[in-house]
Design a protein that fits this description.
Distance between the termini: 34 Å
Number of helices: 3
Number of strands: 10
Oligomer: single chain
Shape: globular
Radius of gyration: 16 Å
Mean pLDDT: 95
Largest sheet: 5 strands, antiparallel
Low-confidence stretches: none
Helix content: 25-40%
Bound molecules: adenosine-5'-diphosphate, magnesium ion
Number of domains: 1
Structural class: alpha+beta
Order of helices and strands: EEEEHEEEEHEEH
Length: 167
């Protein structure tokens, strides 16, 4: 498939998140960073995030606490609104897809205010998914559960730091 910048849900430094019109899925596509043109750091972050979603999806106890993970997505290119090919800015093979989560987004640490959230944090720790605190949570309206995003099995911040400071 091709993605289009008109469908951008969020544009970050390391990745853009697209939600194609009418789709209930998002696509997180990693960018080419100036000091990581070979993509080693970005690949490491991609691996750490996809591994985390795979593990948490596979565990019946935690699966509902993250979006459904659809795996690596095959992206042929990225276009802009006027039809220009913007593919060059991305590592097209580094894209994964999740179910779209609706609602109010809060810093992930908000789960620690709830009993279920502290239990979830312990369970993630046991599963080796230790890096979620810098992510976000979409709390259920009654706050009795939540869906975490931006989780990883390795410290993305440290990996990106390498990418930005490597010479
Ligand atoms: N599954 C999703 N459902 C809804 N919004 C999402 C989803 N995944 C990402 N987003 C939106 O995109 C933003 C960036 O995604 P995130 O994985 O946190 O990327 P980054 O690594 O750039 O922080 C999130 O803060 C959220 O607003
Ligand atoms: Mg984030």
């Amino acid at each position: 498939m091709r993605l289009n910048k008109v469908d951008l849900l969020h544009s970050g430094t390391p990745a853009d998140v697209f939600r194609p019109a009418g789709s209930d899925r998002i696509y997180k596509l990693f960018k080419r960073l100036p000091k990581d043109s070979g993509g080693r750091a970005v690949q490491a972050v991609f691996d750490a995030e996809t591994e985390a979603y795979r593990i948490v999806n596979a565990c019946p106890e935690t699966a509902s606490s993250v979006p459904r993970y659809f795996g690596q997505a095959s992206i042929r290119g990225v276009d802009t609104a006027d039809g220009t090919d913007a593919s060059r800015g991305y590592h097209l093979h580094l894209c994964y897809s999740l179910s779209f989560v609706d609602g109010q987004e809060l810093p992930a640490a908000a789960i620690l205010e709830h009993h279920w959230g502290r239990a979830l944090a312990d369970r993630l720790d046991e599963l080796g998914v230790e890096y979620w605190i810098d992510g976000s949570v979409f709390l259920a309206p009654d706050k009795s559960s939540g869906v975490l995003i931006d989780i990883a099995t390795a410290d993305a911040r440290a990996l990106y730091h390498q990418a930005f400071t490597a010479s």
